[in-house]
Amino acid sequence: MRAVLLGPPGAGKGTQAARLADHYGIPAISTGDIFRANVAGETELGLTAKSYMDAGELVPDELTNAMVKDRLAQDDARDGFLLDGYPRNSDQAVVLDLMLADLGAALDGAIEITVDFDEVTDRLLGRAQTEGRDDDTEPVIRKRLEVYRTSTAPLTAFYEGRGLLVQVDGMGGVDEVTERIVSAVEHHSSS
Ligand code: AP5
Known about the structure:
This protein is about 60% helix and about 10% strand.
C-alpha cells in the first residue's frame, strides 16, 4: 500500500500511522518527525526548519520535497509506505505524483482523519503538558490550524476527484479509530 495520511494537527495522524505501518508491514514516514530529528541534531536543514515550525508555518516546499524524495528512494519504501504530514499543499501533492511516477509507482489512497478543531486543540494542549513540543502552544496551534485550513484542507477535494479519498471519523478511542481506518481502506480497495 502506498498512501498518504491527511488531517488537521492533532487528528491522530502520527498515532495511527505507527499502528497502520505495523498492520500493513510498511514504513510510516512522518515529515514532522524527520524535521524534528534534524532540529535535535542541529543539522543545516534542522536549523532552517526550526524557525518555520516554531511559528506554525510550513517549511518551504523545495526543502520538504527534496527530503521526501530522498526518503522514498530508500529500500524499505520500495513496496509501500504511509506518508504522515506530506503532502500539505497542492504543489507538494503534484510533486509527490511526479516523484512516484519516476519510481514507477502511484498512490493507492489518501486517508483523511476528520476531527473537529476544538477536540484537536484540547489534544495538543494536553500533549504540551506531557511532551512539551515547542509548537504545542495556544497561539502556534491556532496558526497551525489556520495553515491547515488554507493550504492542506483543499487536498481533500484534490484526492476525492481522483477517487483516492478515504475519510474516517477520528473522534473516539485510538483503537476504535484504527479499526475504522482498516475497515474503510479494505472497503475502498475492494470497491
Ligand atoms: P507535524 O509533526 O506533521 O505536526 P502536525 O500535522 O501539526 O501533527 P501533530 O503531530 O501535532 O498531530 P497528529 O495528527 O500527528 O496527531 P498525533 O498522533 O501526534 O508537523 C510539524 C511541523 O513540521 C509543521 O507545522 C511544519 O512546520 C513542519 N512540516 C511537517 N510536514 C511538512 C510538510 N509536508 N511541508 C512543510 N512543513 C512541514 O496526536 C496528537 C495528540 O493527540 C497526542 O497526544 C496523541 O496521544 C493524542 N491522540 C491521538 N489520537 C487520539 C484519540 N483518538 N483520542 C484522544 N487523543 C488522541
